[in-house]
Amino acid sequence: MYNFLMITGNFNISIVSTDKEFAQAMDIRRLVFVDECKIAKQQEFDGNDFGATHILALDGQKPIGTMRIRYFNGFVKMERMCVIKDYRKTDVSEQIMQKAMLFAAQKGYEKAYGVCKKELLNRWKQNGFEPIAGAKEVEQNSMSLIPVMCNLPKVENVITMQTEAQILNAKEGTWFDLTQNEAVMRIKNLTDKVKQIKQPLQIADKNLQSEFMYPLLHKADDKSY
Q1: Structure pTM?
Q2: 3-class SS at 193?
Q3: Closest Cα to residue 12, out of 20, 4, 21, 3?
Q4: Are the C-beta atoms of residues 21 and 40 closer than 8 Å to each other?
Q5: Alpha-carbon Rg for the chain in angstroms
Q6: What is the DSSP string of 40-88?
Q7: Inter-residue contact 148 to 116 (CB < 8 Å)
Q8: Per-residue pLDDT tens digits for 104-161
């Protein structure tokens, strides 16, 4: 079983969940792959971004790295990982990789596939990846890439069909941030607040209706008409 590396950089690594975060991830890829590596925009942005999970690395409020995860039968594909130039000597790429591996493992996947440049193979190996025996190098965007794979780490908490609904409904990647009891209590508290808000409104509506309808309901007995 693969053990996660020690984390040294103080970066925020998260699953993209807002339009702003998605735009930041795309901006990083545009900067690195399109502007720096001269990959055609239509090749880099291939239409798969809307069916994938994206990871975003921030240094404070500054976007510095990203990765895309796509899903296949029995394995995930980790791709489009890049870090802006000033942060390539930090361990942010390892942190992104670790986040991706934990995320995929919690989803129930056991294997991950990727491709990497020869000069980056050692960094992928540090994260548990190995070249796939007998696999040919991949020619992509004028680069020769080595197919690699790894067995994802065994984790205590894994999403299954028996997982509680409260956990399944949580934001992607935060399923186990709350214990089951905490999740139940959070929903109960929210329900109680909704009831407290609706009750006064119902009373107000009732009073308003009574005041408005009174002269109409009693019109026949009203001697002023």
Answers
A1: 0.74
A2: helix
A3: 21
A4: no
A5: 26
A6: -HHHHS-S-GGGSEEEEEEETTEEEEEEEEEEETTEEEEEEEEE-GGGT
A7: yes
A8: 999 999 999 999 988 889 889 988 999 999 899 988 877 889 999 999 999 989 999 9
